Amino acid sequence: MLDPMTLRQVCGQFATGVTVVTTRCAEEIHGMTVNSFASLSLDPMLVLFCADKKTNTHGYVDQSGVFAINILRADQRQISDRFASKDLPEEQRFEGLSFCTASTGAPIFDCTAGYLDCRVSDRLPGGDHTIFVGKVEAMECFGGEPLVFHAGKYTHLKEEF
Fold this sequence. Notes:
Layout: H1 4-11, E1 16-17, E2 19-25, E3 28-34, E4 37-42, E5 45-52, H2 56-64, E6 66-71, H3 77-84, E7 99-100, E8 108-109, E9 114-126, E10 129-141, E11 148-150, E12 153-155
Antiparallel strand pairs: 1-11, 2-3, 2-6, 4-5, 5-10, 6-9, 7-8, 9-10, 11-12
């Protein structure tokens, strides 16, 4: 039978990395945990992420036109949980976290596996989501073991074989 929960279960079999998408809208900063992130093009350098239209961060990225993709390391699960929480008020999500900015002013967390700082180049409809395409304006790779999500839970990569 075709239903949303079965789709979620099937898609959950695809292991993903975990990111926090952040943005700055005027003087306010916002962010949310996202695993629907992908690189799109090398020339020009484009990436994308998908955001539920009901989330606050969706509206702020749409309005500001900028976002940063913070690629989380395995030891940053608490950051993922914090920005995925519906119980934690949005204004408290950044408390105690060190971050800087690069080109767009969107927050970039210290000690991630890497980041991509982007300006929205396109918005595409995707059902109850918007697909935000961003042109990369700044980036840096720091490496480290990635935070991985599979079948509804965090997991680790196994050793290479």
